[in-house]
Amino acid sequence: MTTQENSQKPKEANNSENTFKKIISHAKEYGFVFPSSEIYDGLQAVYDYGQYGVELKNNLKNLWWKSMTQLNDNVVGVDAAIFMNPLTWKASGHVDGFNDPMIDNKDSKKRYRADTLIEDYAAQLAEKGDSEKAAAIVKKMNQLLEANDLKGVYNLIVEEKIKCPLSGTSNWTDVRQFNLMFSTQVGSVAEDSNTIYLRPETAQGIFVNFLNVQKTGRMKIPFGIAQIGKAFRNEIVAKQFIFRMREFEQMEMQFFVRPGEEMKWYEQWKETRLKWHQSIGLPAEKLQFHKHEKLAHYANAAVDIEFAFPFGFKEIEGIHSRTDFDLSNHQELSKKKMQYFDNELNENGKPYGNYVPYVVETSVGADRLFLAVLCHAYTEETVGEGENQKERIYLKLHPALAPVKAAIFPLVRKDGLPEKAQAIFNSLKYDFNIIYEERDAIGKRYTRQDLIGTPFCIAVDYESLENDTVTIRYRDTMTQERVKIADLRSKIENEVSLKRIFEKLG
Description:
With 506 residues, this protein is of the alpha+beta class. It has three domains: 3-89 and 180-373, Bira Bifunctional Protein, Domain 2 (BirA Bifunctional Protein, domain 2); 99-179, Herpes Virus-1, CATH 3.30.40.230; 391-505, Anticodon-binding domain (Rossmann fold), CATH 3.40.50.800. It is built from 17 helices and 23 strands. The strands form seven sheets. Strands 3-9-10-16-13-12-11 form a seven-stranded mixed sheet. Strands 20-19-21-22-23 form a five-stranded mixed sheet, sandwiched between helices. A hairpin with a 6-residue loop joins strand 4 (99-104) and strand 5. Helix 5 packs parallel to helix 7. It starts with a helix and ends with a helix. Residues 1-12 have low confidence and may be disordered. Substrate binds at residues 113, 201, 248-252, 361-365. It is an enzyme of class 6 (ligase). Pfam families: HGTP_anticodon (PF03129), tRNA-synt_2b (PF00587). Residues 137-403 form the Aminoacyl-transfer RNA synthetases class-II family profile domain. Belongs to the class-II aminoacyl-tRNA synthetase family.
């Protein structure tokens, strides 16, 4: 980093922080995301999606689902229950090992993930030019965590004089493990109730249904099972708006392959998924791969697709080669065979026989993807010249993802224009999510639609009564075009169809 770059960094960081605050404010003010149960002061790290947020999120989920199950003839879907037999989480390793190291500052009463605290400190060192020391600290931390040496992690924090960001002191408690699973009781009588868990991931619902899907669908290896669903984690530190929440939604696909072929499919799904994110409008320069050096207990390879949020590059999707860990553990604990008979594969002229498949996983955080799309779409620009110059804010969403596809406006509320506009609205509402609005000056109506990302505004004026034409105003360029009412449906359909995205995927 040059001296000039270094001197600019605090300003850039400050600008990014301000931008993120604006995006959070925009999300609430215009009906995308609300704090949950806000009238009771909310609940930390829990959010509700508003009327436009739920449309955008559903559009993203629908696109992901169709990309997986419709474009791939060997991928099918399931919808597994949130509650599962607790032995599921014993086999998966969550009961014994789904923990984060936590530490509290005695002065601020603030709780932190110890590894995050150390990583943030190392990042500060790197920013100051001491990358070598930063890397050494992270490496030592990983070694201590791998050995479950929590005392060593505490000593590392003390030795480096890492301070609490709030109190500015190093008055820490011991480091201890914190299980991230939410538990509850099931049963009609307290004495007879059993402890079960709210699932911390959706993947296990796929694994326990592997044989059900394979046999009933007559699926042949390689094949995948996709699922979209809620998961729950009692995060120690939930922060950065909807990036890290205690209740969140995952879009996962587990791809079952022959042992020994997992790395070929791992590489293929890496590239496929990166291309998918680019196809929805996230630019290549804002996406990167981050390879895992420290692997989860179930993986032999792992990489994240990260997006450049205002607060830095962070994960939006993980691609993992999970080996046969999950199916083998479920087979061992349940005593039910999780094997596949491969009658197409021969080894030295002999049938290969039964084997437990290996798995390549792609897992997208639906909420994180929503936030990435929202952050990239949020646009501030200066328009006009001289005294007419003004600031403009709009959401530059891909038309296929926009919550509202078009808005119909009568120029004025008289002379038959509302009736004409209403007739156009009624003819299009069965095909697209559109809205009709007649209040306020038309300029204000355009602005409101820009703020929620509506790609097309259709104005009905006096000429419309004479020749059945309307004016389409395009969100991104603000240019206007006169078109026939009869051509509206095909014109909108061409722009908002998922086909525009599918074509980019090949």
